[in-house]
Amino acid sequence: MQTRCLDPSSYFCKGRPFLHLPDSFLKMPMRPDETDGSSSSLRERKSRARLTRPCPANGIYAIGDVHGCLDLLKKLEEKIIADRKDPAEDTLILYLGDLVDRGPDSKGVIDHCLSPLPPGFERMSLCGNHDQLFYEFLLNPSLASDWIAFGGQETLMSYGVDVASLLSRCSGEEGFRSLLGEAIPKSHFRYLQELPVALTTDQAHFVHAGMRPGVSMADQIDDDLMWIREEFLVAHPASDRLIVHGHTPAPTPQLGPDRIGIDTKAVGSGPLTAVHIYHGSHRFLSVSPCEYGP
Q1: What ranges does the record give for the region Disordered, renumbered to this chain (predicted)?
Q2: Which CATH number is 11-140+186-291 given?
Q3: Domain ranges of the chain
Q4: I need a labelling partner for 275 at 20 to 30 A (CA). Which of 30, 79, 249, 253 fits?
């Protein structure tokens, strides 16, 4: 049986180029798939939307994994808004997924996602593996869920749900489900439910984790777009356009053949990074915790 590890921080090859991953990285367990016979539908799932649209006149600012770091997200959006080239033209701010888990304010991040932007700006988010796990948890909540130990506890705490206290009081599953029903706004559930898994423009594919090499976007499955790592990172993507992604953390943005990775460990005291894709070029913007600390 293969199980995909939810926390890559202990084995990520720190700062090395994508094509020089250590052997230990490649031997890490994977998420359950068709190889163990337990979830044959997982490899076939294409339940989330894949969007296609022209690139806005002012380009796209793609933001890496937020993981509940609301303060950094707000500061980065302020920087993006100030950076806009032409106030008369449209600009898209695109989150690459993993809005939730591990950080201090996942609830605040989703509230922020649902808030308005200044005129001329549009905000969109893709679904990351942690967002998908949170959504699946809400469909079938349980105190025994593995997700709680992989960042979910911090997410639930941001909604006022103290898992440790519930466990110590032996409140039981029914009490837990009732508390969740009161704590999680329906608007947040719908938001998670409706997240697309990819955006394609004339210049790039935007996804959370990456793409299976040699497979067209039309034939990619949700699980790969949200979870893939080593198969994508060690191979030449052979994609028809640039792939912009998060998911695999590094201290700085990572450039590989036809891809840009921008998960820069915001939840691990690193910066939160955006890449501006504009007329075939790219440049980075970021904010660090030390810039806005006490």
Answers
A1: 29-49
A2: 3.60.21.10
A3: 11-140+186-291
A4: 30
Residue where the block lists tokens 């009081």: 169
Render the burial of 112-125: b for 16+ CB within 10 Å, e for the rest.
bbeeeeeebbebbb
Tell me the pLDDT tens digit for each residue of 185-198. Answer: 999 999 999 999 99
Structural contact between residues 76 and 63, judged by C-beta atoms closer than 8 angstroms: yes
Q: How far apart are CA 124 and CA 199, in angstroms?
A: 10
Q: How many Å apart are CA 209 and CA 233, to the nearest integer?
A: 10
pLDDT of residue 170: 58
Question: How many residues does the structure list for the chain?
Answer: 294
| pTM of the predicted model as reported, rounded to 2 decimal places | 0.84
